[in-house]
Amino acid sequence: MLAHINTLTFNGLEILRVDLQAQISSGLPNFIIVGLPDKAIAESKERVRAALQSLGIPLPPKRIVINLAPADLLKEGSHFDLPIALAILGVMGIVPAEKLSSYLVMGELGLDGSILSVNGVLPVAFKASKEKLGLICPAANGGEASWTELKDIISAPDLSSLINHLKGTNILPPPPKQTLLQPSSPLDMSDIKGQETAKRALEIAASGGHNMLMIGPPGSGKSMLAARLPSILPPLSVEEALSTAMVQSIAGEFNSSGLNFTPPFRAPHHNASTPALVGGGRKGTPGEISLAHNGVLFLDELPEFNRPTLEALRQPLENGMVQISRVNAHTSYPAEFQLIAAMNPCRCGYLGFKDKECSKAPVCAQEYMSKISGPLLDRIDIKIEVAPVSPWDLAQAKGGETSSTIRTRVIAARQIQLSRLKALGVKDIHINSRLKGDLLEKVCILDNDAKALLIAFADKNSLSARAYHRTLRLARTIADLQNESKILKLHIAEALSYRQSRYF
């Protein structure tokens, strides 16, 4: 006999169908898995054997062959355990094999027959819904799958209950819908005393999704400012939350308590490798920039990162996608993140401050700054200096406006951008930082004084085409915060002030 089970393998967020075929025939007892399985799949036969024996179902003393078609496609992951077990049970006549043909199946087996959680259930559920199939998955992942429009979801805690459900003797309940986690943050902008210029820059960055670099001595509050950016960002839309959740599901970091509408905040350590930051490794897994999709990537101590690692950010910052190329596969992940970086002015941290002046200036600063390339700096819209907080500011009882007050202005500016782009028939762009080409010219209308100032500054300082356009986008955001339809001279002047720094 021969049984077919629909299962899958991953290529980034792309779900590739796999036809799992099981055959039991006469011959010397053997259990073979063919079709380019990885080590985890090759070990499945031992987990399947033990799980079936725990139910009192010994494997027949015959030749068992599992084929994973197409045979030339590399298959990876422990989620093949459950489809292999069901295929064998189908051949043995214990479960109705014809009923299984209308499901996508994934799940890892424990030796006691339990069905353990696996990564990637959310994008698989979308795939099943698109192809008019049901889904059989672990009970721990049932709530994750329920966020799709898929109606036929079987989420089983163990193999025994799944067999009874398929035979119709004990029907499993549908998975419960997970809760919506409303945006929340324990951090608030009012925690920060002083630093009004930095707070203003952070509000502009949040309003238009602009990249930002903070330069200042140790203890000036750079990390505190960055950590509070999510508290002033608008909540994610349903589409953005699901898109972010799919990447997290593939990486095994999906929040099992519900769908989260808070923008993600990732802050990798500066010793992170290039594959850890942009994605890669043997399996082409998503990196920090993809886990920060629709959110914030914070790089503290920017020059301490390896230079090749930083240079790998250049293309994702422009395209919002990262392409991971390996010998066996080419994988793409979304990476629409907002870069917030922080650094000291030199290695000792006190260049330009009279009370603790750097003793090795200017060589110390030159060596430190040279680790950051010009092309990467060109992609950062806002560069600000964060000075030490004075004792008088620290002695104040309150730090100023709360995050909710600032977020109200940010949401209003974002709504202006969204309405303007909708009127132009644009659906895939929602913020000013993503404006390009003809669309940028249509949106960024300057009055004569603003145009003259920008041209004169660009000519005198030899601004690149990228820097020129990024200045336009930044000025457009500043104008939106003031609800101005045209970009005025003062908006250009403020935008240009953020492009300059005494350190670069």
What's the β-strand tally?
A: 18
CATH architecture name of the largest domain: 3-Layer(aba) Sandwich
Backbone shape: elongated
Count of structural domains = 3
> How far is the N terminus from the C terminus?
72 Å
Determine the strand fraction and express it as a percent band. 15-25%
- Strands in their spatial order, largest beta sheet: 13-14-17-11-18
Helix- and strand-based class?
alpha/beta
Compute the number of helices: 22
Give the proportion of residues in helices: 25-40%
Largest sheet: 5 strands, parallel
Corresponding CATH superfamily of the largest domain: P-loop containing nucleotide triphosphate hydrolases
Low-confidence stretches at least 5 residues in length (pLDDT < 50)?
none
Output mean pLDDT: 89
Identify the CATH class of the largest domain.
Alpha Beta
CATH topology of the largest domain: Rossmann fold
The rounded Rg comes to 27 Å
Structure description:
With 504 residues, the chain is of the alpha/beta class. It folds into 3 domains: 2-177, 2-Layer Sandwich (Ribosomal Protein S5, domain 2), CATH 3.30.230; 189-401, Rossmann fold (3-Layer(aba) Sandwich), CATH 3.40.50.300; 408-499, Orthogonal Bundle (Helicase, Ruva Protein, domain 3). It has helices spanning 39-42, 44-54, 81-91, 97-100, 121-130, 142-145, 159-167, 196-208, 222-227, 238-251, 274-278, 288-291, 307-311, 314-319, 363-369, 374-378, 391-394, 403-423, 437-443, 448-461, 465-481, 489-499, and strands spanning 2-11, 14-25, 30-34, 63-69, 103-105, 108-109, 115-116, 134-138, 153-156, 179-181, 212-215, 258-260, 265-266, 296-299, 321-325, 330-334, 338-343, 382-385. The strands form 6 sheets. Strands 13-14-17-11-18 form a 5-stranded parallel sheet. A 4-stranded mixed sheet has the order 1-2-4-3. Helix 2 packs across helix 3, helix 8 packs parallel to helix 18 (403-423) and helix 21 (465-481) crosses helix 22 (489-499). The model has no long low-confidence stretch (mean pLDDT 89).
